[in-house]
Structure formats: C-alpha cells, structure tokens
Design a protein that fits this description.
Helices cover about 25% and strands about 40% of the residues. By secondary structure, the chain is α+β, with helices and mostly antiparallel strands. An eight-stranded antiparallel beta sheet has the order 1-2-8-7-6-5-4-3, with helices on one face. Helix 1 packs across helix 3 and helix 2 packs antiparallel against helix 3. This is SRPBCC family protein.
Length: about 170
C-alpha cells in the first residue's frame, strides 16, 4: 500500500497491488465488470450502467449507490475516462473535469500470471467528506488520513476477492 498527501486539496492517492495466478484475460473479465463490484465491497451497494450502456467504454456512465456507517447513504455518477481492454479501466466520480475521486485498475501479464493494481485519487472536486472537513477544518489531516486508510483496507479486500475468483477459474 502506498498513499500520498495529507490535505484534501493535495489530491491524496492510494494504491494496492497483488499478483494473481491466473491469465490476464480472466482477471480483466472480473475488473471490467462493474456489476460485480458491489459483491466485493462493504461500501458499494449497487451499480448500474446509464444511457443504454452495457459495459465500459470511454465516456460511458454508471450510477453507484454506496453506504458508510459514518457518512450515510449516497449515489454518484461515474464516467469512464480510460478504457484499454486487458490493461486499464478508470473512471472519474461525478464531474470528469473536477472529480470527487478517480479510480483505476491496471493489469499486465507477469511471472505466468497477472499483476493487478487498484489506485484511487481523492478530489479535487467536492465529495461527502468535504462536509466533515468544513465542520472541523482543524481535523482535516486526520479526516483525510482515516478515509484513505479505509480506502486502502477496502481496496485490499477487493483485490483479495478478485484474486480468489480469478484463481478459482
């Protein structure tokens, strides 16, 4: 795990990686299926493609509904911003020009299997976390740190689930 930045405006990032004993094609089928993601996440509850889209392509949109004990329930619209089949799948949350977050999966063949990484950037656009920061600006660094640790924990769990599914065939 690696994360950088301490303030929301720093656009902190976190990245987790794993090696999977499965071919990239099998791993790609899992990471590019956004409908599968709620089964792999405690926070993300549901996902649905919008505008008649049935899968990822640059510009396609999907609606995600999430729930967090401290933050409540919310929904966001995400825009696919990178899509290179078999290699990269990334989306911006809310406004692609000023996203509240960017998420990215990258994979490549390595050592007879697949290296998979999940990366995310918080901000620069406003998110639900900004309300907490607005209420307690003196605690911004702690708020950002705690949320980034949650992301790191959830991303590690997601990759663990993807690894298990891919290796099971």
């Amino acid at each position: 795990m690696r994360w950088t930045g301490a303030h929301y405006t720093d656009k902190p990032t976190v990245e987790v990686r794993t090696w999977i004993d499965a071919p990239p094609e099998r791993v790609w089928a899992l990471v590019s299926d956004v409908g599968l993601m709620p089964d792999l996440s405690d926070e993300l509850q549901s996902v649905e493609w919008l505008d008649g889209a049935t899968g990822p392509a640059v510009g396609a949109r999907f609606l995600g509904r999430s729930r967090h004990e401290a933050l409540g329930e919310w929904s966001t619209t995400s825009y696919v911003i990178e899509y290179e089949p078999g290699h990269v799948f990334a989306w911006a949350v809310q406004d692609p020009a000023d996203p509240s977050a960017i998420w990215r999966f990258r994979l490549h063949a390595a050592d007879g299997g697949t290296d998979l990484s999940e990366w995310m950037q918080m901000g620069p656009g406003r998110s639900g976390l900004c309300a907490a920061i607005d209420r307690m600006p003196e605690k911004e660094q702690k708020i950002v740190f705690v949320r980034m640790r949650e992301f790191e924990h959830n991303m590690t769990a997601t990759l663990k689930h993807i690894k298990k599914l891919a290796e099971a065939g």
